[in-house]
Specification:
3 helices, mainly alpha, Putative oligomerization/nucleic acid binding protein, SHOCT
């Protein structure tokens, strides 16, 4: 009959216990890391989705380009031409017309 040893475990018992503790700690740490990564991925996906929804709501409606000023009659005075050029400059500064539209309208006003 074998006698059981009482007291502290031997070298093999200590190694076995250490292996179990280390394995458990590794498994728990892996689970925690996977859970945190899943939460981060879900949060990133939600933020991307909400960003896309915000972008869809914030897209500005296309603005029709402002019609260029009508060409002045041949007998118009310089005051009328200057007034039209000033209005075109204001439209350009306000961003309602771009450089190409401004140049085309200016050429019409000046009769070029």
């Amino acid at each position: 009959m074998l006698r059981r040893r009482m007291g502290r475990p031997g070298l093999v018992g200590t190694m076995a216990r250490t292996a179990v503790v280390a394995g458990t700690a590794t498994a728990v740490a892996g689970n925690v890391q996977r859970r945190q990564q899943t939460r981060a991925d879900n949060k990133a996906a939600e933020e991307a989705e909400s960003f896309q929804q915000e972008q869809a709501y914030q897209e500005p409606a296309p603005v029709a380009p402002a019609a260029p000023a009508p060409s002045p009659p041949a007998e118009s005075s310089q005051d009328v031409m200057l007034e039209q050029l000033a209005k075109l400059g204001q439209l350009k500064q306000a961003g309602l017309i771009d450089d190409a539209e401004f140049s085309a309208a200016k050429a019409k006003v000046l009769g070029i």
